[in-house]
């Protein structure tokens, strides 16, 4: 059975489909950095502390981290909790259970 080269997408009509195993050719950051114009722009963006395409942005990494999610969730739940409502948040530091005393009657 042959693989279709186009298909119909709801609301969009005929659309070309990529062939299986065919990878798009991406321009890598290394290729882009070899051009003098782009290298100059990267230098300017870095000096301004702006986001540079192809380079991880530390602020974005912080914002999408699990820790930031938990901090925002805790802040929102604390702000939404009415006065005297039961606390739905877990304790900030998990309490260590006390050791059970040894049983002498065993």
What's the main sheet like? Answer: 2 strands, antiparallel
Number of helices: 4
User: Which descriptor suits the 3D outline?
Assistant: elongated
Relative strand content: 5-15%
Which strand order spans the largest sheet, edge to edge or round the barrel?
1-2
End-to-end Cα distance, whole Å, is 74 Å
pLDDT average, as an integer? 71
Report the strand count. 2
Q: Using only CA atoms, what is the Rg?
A: 28 Å
| Unreliable stretches | none
- Order of helical and strand elements: EEHHHH
Please identify the structural class as seen in this structure. mainly alpha
Helix-residue proportion: 25-40%
Oligomeric state as shown:
single chain
Region (Disordered): 1-23, 83-106
Give an overview of the whole structure:
Residues 1-23, 83-106 are annotated as: Disordered. The protein has helices spanning 29-33, 36-47, 58-63, 66-80, and strands at residues 6-9, 13-16. The protein has 106 residues and is mainly alpha-helical. The protein has a domain at 28-80. The mean pLDDT is 71.
